[in-house]
Design a protein that fits this description.
The complex is a heterodimer of chains A (142) and B (137). Chain A has helices at residues 10-31, 37-44, 51-70, 82-98, 103-112, 116-140, and one strand at residues 2-3. Chain A is an all-alpha fold and 142 residues long. Chain B is built from six helices and one strand; from the N terminus they run ααβαααα. Chain B has helices spanning 2-20, 25-32, 41-61, 82-98, 102-110, 114-136; one strand at 37-38. The N and C termini of chain B lie far apart (38 Å). The model of chain B has no long low-confidence stretch (mean pLDDT 96). The chains are: A mainly alpha (142), B mainly alpha (137). Strand 1 (2-3) of chain A pairs parallel with strand 1 (37-38) of chain B, so a sheet runs across the interface.
């Protein structure tokens, strides 16, 4: 392992993370709800009550347009082939619902409230994430 | 008012994803690539989010209702079961494959990235599959 100092965005990532923590705090303190994106999206079409979920998603979808008022949007690189996004999207959707959370619900909110269940979930998905990238980039992609 | 604050939380959440680099799949994979040229940025995202979120949830835990008089809906499950482990493992593989998780998927969808549209459609199919299998069991 070598550290990629060129791409390491210490301050932006720390500040961005703090904004995510602020958003999660606002949602729990004002609405009494956990900012777990997979849970919010997964329940959009299936639970009649909960207009707040639609409001949250609308806010998320508007965020790049509002961000652009302050600063240029950062580059986003989707460099892989189409089937990868199809397969990965399906696994992310099914896996996050089966495991009751994703990077936001378990990784941010769960760890913030010191949930052991979320700690286990986060270690598992980080672990399989590390292994998957290792296999894709160094064993197959090599 | 609750709808406004939920939308506001969504906007701030999206700003955080964009500013931090989480919305860029290449950066996410740079973090997950321990054996390569490792980009530690996402560790800072987690640290920043938890440092702030810790206080929010610490206050929330002591309340039965939110500041807007909504019932406090904190998760109650504590059991570490097979569903949690298998689901999280599957989620991690998908996350590693594409470098995309649900929040960034929606933000990049809104930016009109074609691959994000494919990802979100497949994600919704996966979520609905879970919904129907839960119902029938």
């Amino acid at each position: 392992m070598t550290i990629d100092w060129v791409h390491f965005t210490f301050w932006q990532s720390l500040l961005g993370g703090m904004l995510i923590g602020l958003a999660a705090s606002l949602l729990i303190l004002l609405n009494g709800q956990v900012a777990g994106i997979s849970g919010i999206v997964g329940k959009l079409f299936n639970i009649r009550q909960g207009a707040w979920r639609w409001a949250f998603v609308v806010g998320l979808l508007l965020s790049p347009y509002l961000f652009r008022l302050f600063s240029a949007l950062p580059a986003v690189q989707f460099d892989l082939s189409w089937p990868v996004y199809l397969v990965a999207g399906f696994m992310v959707g099914l896996g996050s619902r089966l495991g009751s959370g994703c990077t936001s619900g378990h990784g941010v909110c769960g760890l913030s409230r010191l949930s052991k269940r979320s700690l286990v979930a986060t270690l598992v998905f980080m672990g399989t994430g590390f292994i998957t990238v290792y296999v894709a980039r160094h064993l197959i992609g090599g | 008012m609750p709808l406004f604050t939920a939308a506001l939380a969504g906007v701030i959440f999206g700003f955080g994803l964009l500013l931090s680099g989480m919305a860029n799949p290449e950066k996410v994979q740079g973090f997950l690539d321990l054996a390569g040229h490792w980009d530690p940025s996402l560790a800072m995202v987690m640290a920043g989010a938890i440092a702030v979120g810790f206080f929010g949830f610490a206050i929330a835990k002591r309340r039965t209702h939110s500041l807007l008089e909504q019932p406090m809906q904190l998760p109650t499950a504590t059991v570490i079961d097979r569903k949690l482990l298998i689901g999280s493992a599957l989620f991690g593989i998908g996350w590693g494959l594409a470098g995309v998780c649900p929040g960034p998927a929606l933000v990049t969808l809104a930016m009109g990235i074609p691959q994000a549209i494919v990802f979100v459609v497949a994600m919704l199919v996966g979520m609905q599959l879970h919904h129907f299998t839960q119902k029938s069991s």
